[in-house]
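assembly run, all chains below
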Amino acid sequence: MIGYAVYRGLQFGGYSGRAIVVLQTMNAICGAVGIGLAYLTYKRTAQTTAALAGTLLFACSFSNWLFSTDVAYITMAGMFASASAALTLYSRSPVAAAAAGLLTALSILTWQASIFLIPALVLLSIQMKHAKYAAIYTAAAVIVAGLTYIIVAAARHDITSVASFAGWFTTYAEGGTLPMWGRWEAQRFHIALGSALKSILPIPLAVPLSQISLNVQLGRIAVDLALVGFGLLGMLAAMKTSARSLRFLGAYLLFLPFIVWWDPFDPKWFFVPNLFFAGFFACALTPWFRNRYASLFILGTLFFMAATNFVTTIGPRHRDVGPDRRMAQCVAENMRPNDLLLAAEWGWPDYLEYLHGRRSLSLISHPSSVQEGLDEVSRASGRAYIPNPAAHSDDHLAWLQSQSGVTREDLNRLVDAPAFSCYGRTIFFVRN
Amino acid sequence: MVQKTWFQVILVTLAGLALYLPFLASQYDTNGVVEPLPSSPDNFFTRITCSTG
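ok done. output:
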């Protein structure tokens, strides 16, 4: 909503570029303001250099840097979270506590899981002996966020009873949701821990020691070294941990059960919790900054981790449009405006409409709309296409079937003659 | 003291802008999942693709 208002405002002022550039710029500003306020939060509980170290960890963590240079609502939620954390820790009046509650409510309305900011910040308030303001903060956050949800439930979902509201509020099932979201399974805990680590460094790029050779990209070895460095920082933090730092760690852990249940696969959801994770490091590493060599090691490691994220991910994503955009452009050049692409994957098909004005229909989220889509294409004298199903891995096809019920046989039944080829992938006509 | 802290906050915010604004992504990949290319000494960097999950 905010992005739409800004975009329309800029258009009114003569801007004619794409919305995505406006949204990315907004995220860069939100990300920068967020880390400024994160520094203010850490400064309240840690020595200046340690606060800077925590801020560096937070600002240059994989998820934070990635989503502060791209489009995702999580960055704005993170900015509101940082603002409410700073204001909560500096609260010296009921008005400030209420304002902190309002900022938490804004974070919740941007990203629902920010509801765990409330117990997290109450935990930190107790640390600061600001318990008397914690109640005001909590009440403000609950009332503003709660009232907004009640209004939305009544206006948009026709929910009028307490029971139906409770059912709507506590269920993650909006009709079209995928089975992988909103469920409990033991292995999801391990997946979430992996995603937590991926939110700090690009772990999928790490190379096992046994596979290191002269042919391995240096960027991948940098990820290995950064991981070792991060592990050593964790050990240093554990050696000097205190009740104050453990409260930050507790605040971080409060988010974990929800992420495990909701979506443990995406490092993005650790954006807001990492505010507290970095706070843990800022507090726990404070005693080490009395030693010059330890200080050099900590700051050197953090800069190395930041450089690793930059050379492996942030730099390439900025300079190169990437394989997905190239693939989308090639496919779009072979399609006409009335044509339709059936996509059994996420990624490049999603660029077709926004960047090239060519339609695609996702077999993942809309498998039941295929016939309707094909009929519409036929009426418009268009053609329908589908990428070669044989190009999908067995793992992907198993995942596709588990999420949407679409099988390899279903895809093969849609395939007709080859239409064209892009970057080694054959695109087929869809059988009429 | 308060003024000094706010000055530091502004400096950190400006540093954040310098980290983010010049490096806006061209890939428009909101999932941001990374995967390595096959090993090659010519590719220091690695490509980025969307996740399937």
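The longest strand of chain A covers residues 415-422.

The beta strands of chain A are 340-343, 359-362, 384-387, 415-422, 425-430.

not gonna interpret more than that til we talk
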